[in-house]
Amino acid sequence: MKIIVFGLGNFGMSLALSLTETGNEVIGVDRQMDKVNLVKDKISHVICMDSTNELAYEALPLKDADKVVVAIGENEGAAIITTAIIKKLSDVKIISRALSPIHDTVLEAMGIHSIVHPEQESADRLTKQINFKTTLENYQLDNNYTISEVKSKPEFHGKTLAELNTIDKYHLNLVTIIRKREKVNLIGKKSIVKETIGLPTPETVLLEDDILVVFGENKNISFYCDCK
């Protein structure tokens, strides 16, 4: 994957190096040249720029990136502005570092759902989560097991869970299913909401846009995601 990491402090640098070591193309961005020089020969690309300047983004392949990590840890305002600019310029998935409860609130208001707290999560652990290429969200329980949201495979659509004997080959436990439905408010305005269907039964039929919440070993989730 192509991943851009904004902020090459201790956490951002560790993450950029860890992602590179696991086979990703990493572009590191920082406004301080001394930090840029520290990693310029260790990751794919590195750029010295002010990420709060929207015009500077012309030098970045933002639209080609698979994921972006805002790892800025010294300036909460710069981190928020950077996240806002990225969200304005691209629909790339953003993983953003939060520096305080207020920062958490602002990111959630901006629609950022992947929020990390380096004080609680190591760069190595976040690397493992990012490397699940086609998962939507992850909650890693330990180094071996994860709860992940994954898209239902096309060959599952229209079939009951009882019919899907082949799902056993992935050695994953299906916890629940997240499904979209149309909702109409009091003034008749329609919107799409996501809801869980509860505990699936053998008679549950999988639909095209279903998101499966699965539990299992990291290697088996990776196997599910890599199988076409």
Automatic annotation (TrEMBL):
Residues 134-228 form the RCK C-terminal domain. Residues 1-127 form the RCK N-terminal domain. It holds the Pfam family TrkA_N. It comes from the Bacteria. This is Trk system potassium uptake protein TrkA. The lineage of its organism: Bacteria, Pseudomonadati, Bacteroidota, Flavobacteriia, Flavobacteriales.
